[in-house]
Specification:
alpha/beta, 5-stranded mixed beta sheet, flat
Length: 157
Amino acid sequence: MGMMICNDRRWAEGWRCYGLQGVEVVLCGYNTAGFAPDLWGTRKPMTPEEAEKDAVFHHKLVMQGNSYMNSCFSVSAAKAGMEDGKYDLIGGSCITSPEGHVIAEAKGKDDEIVFAEIDLEDCRQGKEKTFDFDRHRRIDQYGPITIQTGVVEPELL
C-alpha cells in the first residue's frame, strides 16, 4: 500500500516508485480548488464552472492513468467544502481499478462515503504481462529523470 498527498498524484515518479515495489493500492487525500487563478490555471480564460470541470478531468486523468500504468487500485479522497474560506473544492473522490476504470465515485461535492469491493488479484495481469517491469523497463534510457528538475530543451539541429 502506498500513500500520496494532493499534488503528489500528478507526478509519475512517485507512482512508479510504488509500482516498482509491487504496490496494489495507492491512497491519496487532496483538496483541489475548482477555480483559483491566483494559485494555478491555464493561459486561456475560463469561467469558474469550466475551471472546475477541467480540474476534475485532470484529477481523474492522473488517477486513472497512473493506476493503469502501475497496475494498482487507487483510492482518492477529496476534502469537501471551502478551503481558506474562498476556494470551492472540486470533490471527485473515486476508486480506480488497475485497468484505469473508475469503479466507484462520489455523487457530489458534499461529505459522503465512496466504497467498492476490490480483488487484489486484479493487479496481477498488468504486473506480470502488460507492464512486466523486469522485462520491459529500459532504465538506461531514463537518466534525465534522476538528474534534472527543470525543462532542458535539446539543441536545434
